[in-house]
Amino acid sequence: MPYDVDHEVKLVQYHIARIGQDQGNGTFTCTFGELFNDEEAEQVFESLVGSLKAAKKRGILDFQGQMLLMPMHKDVVLTLKEPLPAGTVVGPPQPVRDQ
User: Fold this and answer.
1) Which of 16, 29, 42, 88 shows a CA-CA span of 20 to 30 A to 68?
2) Which secondary structure element, helix H or strand E, spans residue 79, and what is its range?
3) Max Cα separation, the chain?
């Protein structure tokens, strides 16, 4: 299956909004450790750190530092600045299929 960066960023948005706390201003937060140890998220991501970096580069996610490693960065707060629009995705986006 090809690696689809847009798909991975949507997964980041979905999972952080799912496990994070709504800050009341359109953003959600959770720690890297919460996301890393989440049973559903750990089954989805090929490269969680790569997906987080891609979301940060696109301005959708914010966190301190460039690279996150467990357990050293387990308490780093991830701020989802741009959640998926309401009603866009009920569950996680489906994987890309080879054509």
Assistant:
1) 88
2) strand 77-80
3) 41
Instruction: Give the single-character DSSP code of 67.
Output: -
pLDDT at 33: 97
* Region of residue 70 (phi > 0: left; psi between -120 and 50: alpha; otherwise: beta): beta
Strands 61-62 and 77-80: antiparallel
Q: How many CA atoms lie within 13 A of 90 on its CB side?
A: 0
C-alpha radius of gyration, the chain, whole number: 13
d(CA 92, CA 69): 24
Rounded CA separation 10/23 (Å) = 19
Closest listed residue to residue 18, CA positions, set 36, 41, 37: 41
For 53-79, write each residue's pLDDT tens digit: 999 999 999 999 998 999 999 999 999
Cα–Cα distance, 13 to 19 (Å, whole number): 10
